[in-house]
Design a protein that fits this description.
The complex is a heterotrimer of chains A (615), B (245) and C (102). Chain A is built from 18 helices and no strands. By secondary structure, chain A is mainly alpha-helical. The radius of gyration of chain C is 19 Å and the shape is flat. Classes of the chains: A mainly alpha (615), B mainly alpha (245), C mainly alpha (102). Chains in contact: A-B, A-C, B-C. Chains B and C meet through helix 1, helix 3 and helix 8 of B and helix 1, helix 2, helix 3 and helix 4 of C. The complex binds copper (II) ion.
Chain lengths: 615, 245, 102
C-alpha cells in the first residue's frame, strides 16, 4: 500500500515517546501488555479487598460488620473481578507481551484490534464496577442463576450492569483471542514449526481457541438474560413453560471451558520457568502439549458437573461424572512431566522457581479435591459448601495466581529492564505460600463440617469459629504478601539494577534481545532450528540461527512499525456509551443509539486510516 | 508457484502463506457458528414447550418463506459473480452484480419485516363444527373464548386476533431472537456491500489487486446464507411438520 | 511446474461464472425439492432425514464452492468445521438433556 508507508522514523519515534497520549494511542504489543498487567493488578487489589471484607465478616460467629445485602454484592463482585478483571487480563498481559517475542515477530497480527481489546476490557471493567456507586453491585453470584436475576427478584439495575459488563468484556476477549490465533499461526519466525513453539505459546493458542468457541455461548446466554429483563421475553420463566435450568446449562457450557482459560496460561508459564531453572529441557514436551490440547477438548464435555444436584437423572450424571474424571488423566500427565523436568536437574531456587514449584504442590491439592467432586455421590455432600470454596481457591489462587506471580518475577527483567530484589521476592513467596494454605486449607474442614457457601454469618454453636478465625488470619498474611509484592515491583522498577538481556540463561527467543526490548523487538528476524531455540544457539548446536540482539540500531530505519491510532479507544468509548444507555433506558434507546453511532463511525474511520500494518 | 502472484493478494510472507485477515475471518466464522448454534439450541430445547399459542403451525407460511429463502440463495450467486467479475477487472459487471446482491439482501429483510408484522397481527379463524381433537392450542382457546368463542356467540365460525410477539410464549422469544439476530447479520452485510459499492467509484479503492477486501465481505455474506439454509429447514419446515409440534 | 499445469491450477482455484451459475441452479432445485417433499404427507417422519440431507447438501455446496473452501488451505476448513461440530454437539447434548428425543 503506497499511501500506507508512513514516515517510519517518525512513527517509531512517536511511540517510543512517553506521555499519556502515547499510551492512549499505542498499538505496541509490549505496551498493551503492560497496560493489561497494571490494570489487572489494580483490579486484583480491588477483588482482594472485597475478599478481605468477606473474611472480616466471617472471622467470628454472629458478626454484623456487613449487612447480608452488601455481603451478597461482595462475594459476587469478588468472583467476577477475580475471574474477568484479574486472572483473564493477567493472562492477556502475558499473551500480549510474550507471544510476539517468543515466536520471533515484531508485533501481533492486528495491532489496532489489540488496542481495542484492551480499551474494551478497561471500560467494561469500569462499567461493571461503577454499579457499586450507581445503586448497588450485582448480587446474584457470579453465575447469576435464574430466577435470582429476573426483574422480579433483582429489580434494580445491578443485573443489567452484570449483563452489559460481561457482554463488553466478551467482545474484548473474543477480539483478543482471534488476534492471537492469527498471530501464533501466521507470524512465527522461519523454522518455528508448531512442535518447536514454546509451551507457553502453545497454551496461549489453546486458550485462544477455547475463547473463540466458548465465548459465543455466554454471549447468547447474556442476550437472553437481557431480553428477559428488558422486554419480558419469557426465556427462563417457569410460568410460561420456560426452564431456569437452561440458564445454568448455558452458563456452565461457557463456565467450564472458562476454568481452563484461567488455568492453561498458568500451566504455560510454569512450563517455561521449570526447565530454565532446572537447566534441562522440558521433560515430555509433546506430552505436555497434547495434554493441554486434550484438556481443552474435554473441557466442552463436562459442564454439567456443576449441576449434579439439580436432578439431571442417573444417566446424565454418570456420563458427566466419567468425563470429568477423564480430565484428571491429561492433568496428571502435566504434573508428572513437570516433576520429570525437575528430577535430576541442577536446580536454581530463585523466586520464579519457588513460585513454579509452589504451583505444582498447590494445584495438585486443588486437582485432587476436584476429582473428589467429580464423583457425583460425594459431590452431593460437598455441593455449595466451603469444600468447593477451598477447591476453587487451590486451583485458581494456588494454581493460576501463584503461577502468574512467578511469571511476573521471571519476566520482570525483560519487561521493566531492571532486576527485582531476590530477598524480598523470596519473603514474598514464603508469606504467600503460608498465607494461602492458612486461608484456604481450613475451608476443607469447614465444608466437610457443613458450612454453606455465601452465608453472611453463622451461629456460635455451629462450631465453625475456630477454622474461620484461622482463615481470616491467613488472609491477613496473604494481604501482607501482596503488599510486599507490590513494594518489590515498584521499588525494583524505579531503582533496580539494570537487567541484562538474558539474566537467567533462558531458552526462548525473548531472551535473545535487549531488556526491555526495542520497539521493533527483533532487529533481524531469527531463524529457528530447534525447540529451545536460544539455548541451541548459545550452546553452538546450530550455526547462527538467532542473531544476538541489542545491536547498533543501524537497521532501525528500514523496519516498518504500525503507527499509533486513537480509533480503538473511540470505538470502545462508543460501545460504553451504548452500554450505559441500555442500563438506563427508560423505554427509549436514544443514548444507546448515539453510542452505537459513535462506535460505527469509529469503525469506518479505522478502516480508512492509512496504516503500515505488517499486513 | 502460481499462487504467489500479486494477482491473488492473499499469499504473502506469513508462516502459513495465508493472509492474516482471511484467517481472522474464518476463525470468526467458526466462532459465529457457536453463536447461532447456541441460539438454535435454545429454540430446539424450548420447542413444544410453549403453554399457549400461536405456534409455528399457526403462523408460518411456507410458500412465502420459500420465496425469501430463494432470494437469499440467489444473492449468494450474484455475490460470487460480482467477485469473479472484479477479479477479471470488469468493473461494470462487478457493480451490477454487487448492487443486485445488496438489493436481494434488502428484499430478504423486507420479507422478514413483513413476516414479523403478519405474525404480530395473526388472526385465528375457527370452524365451530370441526372436531376438537384437530384444533391447535390457540384455535382451542379461541373456540372456548368467553366473549368471542363459539358458545359465547353461537356462530358457526369465530375469529380473534392472537398475535405472536417475542413476549407471547417461548416460541415467540426463541424464534424472534434467532431470526432477529440473523436479520441483524444480513443488515450488517448489506451495509458492508453498499460501502464496497460506493467505494468502487473512488479510484483505486476497489480493484482486482485488492479483491481480498471483497472476498472477505463475500465470505461473511455466504455464511449468513448458509445459516439461513439451516434455519429454513430446522425452524420453518420442521416447525410446521405435524410430528414435531 | 509447467505453464499448462499452472493454468489448470489457476482455473481450478477460481471456477468460472458458468460453474457458479450451475451451482446456483442446483441449490434452487434442492430448495424446490425440499419444499415439494414437505407436502408429501405419506412420507411422515421420513421427511426428517431427507430434509436434513438436502439442506446439508446445500450447506456443503455453498461452503465448498462459493466460500471456496474446496480450493483453500485446510486450516480454514478446520477452524470452521471445529465451530460447526462443537455447535452441533452442544445442540444435540442440550436437546438430549431436555428430553427432546424422549
Ligand atoms: Cu467445571
Amino acid at each position: 500500500m503506497a499511501s500506507a508507508v508512513g514516515a517510519v522514523g517518525a512513527a517509531g519515534h512517536a511511540s517510543t515517546e512517553s506521555g499519556v497520549w502515547s499510551w492512549i494511542t499505542t498499538v505496541d504489543h509490549k505496551r498493551i501488555g503492560i497496560l493489561y498487567g497494571v490494570s489487572a493488578i489494580l483490579f486484583f487489589l480491588l477483588g482482594g479487598s472485597e475478599a478481605f471484607l468477606i473474611r472480616m465478616q466471617l472471622a467470628s460467629a454472629d458478626a454484623d460488620l456487613i449487612s447480608s445485602g452488601v455481603f451478597s454484592q461482595l462475594f459476587t463482585m469478588h468472583a467476577l473481578t477475580m475471574v474477568f478483571l484479574a486472572i483473564m487480563p493477567l493472562g492477556a498481559a502475558f499473551f500480549n507481551f510474550l507471544i510476539p517475542l517468543q515466536i520471533g515477530a515484531r508485533d501481533v497480527a492486528f495491532p489496532r484490534l489489540n488496542a481495542l481489546s484492551y480499551w474494551l476490557f478497561l471500560f467494561g471493567a469500569i462499567l461493571l464496577n461503577s454499579s457499586f456507586v450507581f445503586g448497588g453491585a450485582p448480587d446474584a453470584g457470579w453465575f447469576a442463576y435464574a430466577n435470582l436475576t429476573s426483574s422480579t427478584y433483582s429489580p434494580g439495575d445491578s443485573m443489567d450492569y452484570f449483563t452489559l459488563g460481561l457482554l463488553v468484556l466478551g467482545i474484548s476477549s473474543l477480539a483478543a483471542a482471534l488476534n492471537f490465533v492469527v498471530t501464533i499461526l501466521n507470524m512465527r519466525a522461519p523454522g518455528m514449526t508448531l512442535m518447536r513453539m514454546p509451551v507457553f505459546t502453545w497454551m496461549a493458542l489453546v486458550v485462544s481457541f477455547l475463547l473463540v468457541f466458548a465465548l459465543p455461548i455466554l454471549t447468547v446466554g447474556l442476550i437472553e438474560l437481557l431480553f428477559w429483563r428488558f422486554f419480558d421475553m419469557p426465556f427462563f420463566s417457569a410460568e410460561f413453560g420456560g426452564d431456569p435450568l437452561l440458564w445454568q446449562h448455558i452458563f456452565w457450557l461457557f463456565g467450564h471451558p472458562e476454568v481452563y482459560i484461567l488455568i492453561l496460561p498458568a500451566m504455560g508459564i510454569v512450563s517455561e520457568i521449570l526447565p530454565t531453572f532446572s537447566r534441562k529441557p522440558l521433560f515430555g514436551y509433546t506430552a505436555v502439549v497434547f495434554a493441554g490440547v486434550s484438556i481443552a477438548f474435554l473441557g466442552f464435555a463436562v459442564w454439567a458437573h456443576h449441576m449434579f444436584t439439580v436432578g439431571l437423572g442417573p444417566v446424565a450424571i454418570a456420563a458427566f461424572s466419567a468425563s470429568t474424571m477423564l480430565i484428571a488423566v491429561p492433568t496428571g500427565i502435566k504434573v508428572f512431566n513437570w516433576m520429570g523436568t525437575i528430577w535430576g536437574g541442577s536446580l536454581d531456587l530463585r523466586t520464579p522457581m519457588l513460585f513454579a514449584i509452589g504451583f505444582i504442590a498447590l494445584f495438585t491439592i486443588g486437582g485432587l479435591s476436584g476429582v473428589m467432586h467429580a464423583a457425583a455421590s460425594s459431590d452431593a455432600q460437598q455441593q455449595d459448601t466451603y469444600f468447593i470454596v477451598a477447591h476453587i481457591h487451590y486451583v485458581l489462587f494456588g494454581g493460576a495466581i501463584v503461577a502468574v506471580i512467578g511469571g511476573i518475577y521471571y519476566w520482570f527483567p525483560k519487561f521493566s529492564g531492571h532486576m527485582y530484589n531476590e530477598t524480598v521476592g523470596k519473603i514474598n513467596f514464603w508469606l504467600m505460600f503460608l498465607g494461602m494454605n492458612l486461608t484456604f486449607f481450613p475451608m476443607h474442614f469447614l465444608g466437610l463440617d457443613g458450612m454453606p457457601r455465601r452465608i453472611y454469618t453463622y451461629d456460635a454453636n455451629m462450631g465453625w469459629d475456630l477454622w474461620n478465625g484461622v482463615a481470616t488470619m491467613g488472609s491477613l498474611v496473604l494481604g501482607l504478601s501482596f503488599l510486599i509484592f507490590i513494594y518489590n515491583m515498584v521499588t525494583s522498577w524505579l531503582n533496580g539494577e539494570p537487567a541484562e538481556a538474558d539474566p537467567w540463561d533462558g531458552r526462548t527467543l525473548e531472551w535473545s534481545i535487549a531488556s526491555p526490548p526495542p520497539e521493533y523487538n527483533f532487529e533481524e528476524i531469527p531463524i529457528v532450528y530447534d525447540r529451545d531455540a536460544w539455548w541451541a544457539e548459545k550452546r553452538g548446536k546450530v550455526q547462527h540461527g538467532v542473531p544476538v540482539g541489542g545491536g547498533s540500531g543501524e537497521e532501525e530505519h528500514s523496519i516498518h512499525m504500525p503507527q499509533p491510532s486513537y480509533w480503538p479507544i473511540v470505538v470502545s468509548i462508543g460501545l460504553i456509551i451504548a452500554s450505559y444507555g441500555l442500563v438506563y433506558n427508560s423505554g427509549n434507546f436514544i443514548v444507546a443509539t448515539i453510542g452505537l453511532l459513535v462506535g460505527i463511525f469509529g469503525v469506518y474511520a479505522w478502516s480508512f486510516e492509512p496504516v503500515n500494518d505488517p499486513e | 508457484m502460481a499462487q504467489a502472484t500479486a494477482d491473488h493478494g492473499e499469499h504473502e510472507a506469513t508462516t502459513t502463506g495465508l493472509n492474516h485477515r482471511k484467517m481472522l475471518m474464518w476463525a470468526f466464522l467458526g466462532s459465529d457458528c457457536m453463536f447461532f448454534g447456541s441460539l438454535i439450541a435454545t429454540y430446539l430445547v424450548y420447542k413444544g414447550r410453549s403453554l399457549e399459542g400461536p405456534l409455528p403451525i399457526d403462523v408460518f407460511s411456507i410458500p412465502t418463506t420459500s420465496v425469501s429463502t430463494f432470494v437469499l440463495l440467489m444473492s449468494s450467486m450474484s455475490m460470487v459473480l460480482a467477485y469473479s467479475a472484479l477479479r477479471r477487472n470488469r468493473m461494470k459487471t462487478f457493480r451490477v452484480w454487487l448492487a443486485s446482491t445488496a438489493i436481494m439482501g434488502m428484499t430478504f429483510l423486507a420479507f422478514q419485516v413483513f413476516e414479523f408484522r403478519v405474525f404480530a397481527n395473526h388472526e385465528v379463524v375457527v370452524d365451530c363444527h370441526a372436531p376438537i381433537g384437530e384444533l391447535s392450542i390457540v384455535e382451542l382457546s379461541v373456540r372456548n373464548d368467553k366473549t368471542v368463542g363459539c358458545e359465547a356467540t353461537g356462530h358457526d365460525e369465530v375469529e380473534k386476533q392472537v398475535g405472536l410477539t417475542p413476549k407471547t410464549n417461548l416460541f415467540g422469544s426463541t424464534f424472534f431472537t434467532l431470526t432477529g439476530f440473523h436479520g441483524a447479520h444480513v443488515t450488517l452485510g448489506v451495509i458492508w456491500l453498499l460501502t464496497m459499492f460506493f467505494l468502487s467509484f473512488k479510484k483505486g479503492m476497489v480493484t482486482p489487486e485488492r479483491n481480498l477486501d471483497l472476498d472477505l465481505a463475500a465470505l461473511y455474506w455466504h455464511f449468513v446464507d448458509i445459516v439461513w439454509i439451516i434455519i429454513f429447514t430446522v425452524v420453518y419446515l420442521f416447525g410446521v411438520f405435524p410430528g414435531f409440534a | 511446474m509447467t505453464q499448462e499445469s499452472q493454468a489448470i491450477q489457476h482455473e481450478a482455484a477460481h471456477p468460472t461464472p458458468g460453474t457458479y451459475f450451475k451451482i446456483a441452479m442446483v441449490l434452487s432445485i434442492l430448495t424446490a425439492i425440499e419444499v415439494g417433499i414437505f407436502y408429501l404427507e405419506f412420507l411422515s417422519y421420513g421427511i426428517i432425514p431427507i430434509l436434513v440431507l438436502l439442506s446439508g447438501a446445500k450447506f456443503i455446496l455453498v461452503c465448498m464452492y462459493y466460500m471456496h473452501l474446496k480450493f483453500d488451505d485446510r486450516i480454514f476448513s478446520t477452524m470452521f468445521v471445529a465451530g460447526l461440530i462443537t455447535a452441533a454437539g452442544v445442540t444435540l447434548a442440550l436437546m438430549t438433556l431436555f428430553s427432546f428425543f424422549a
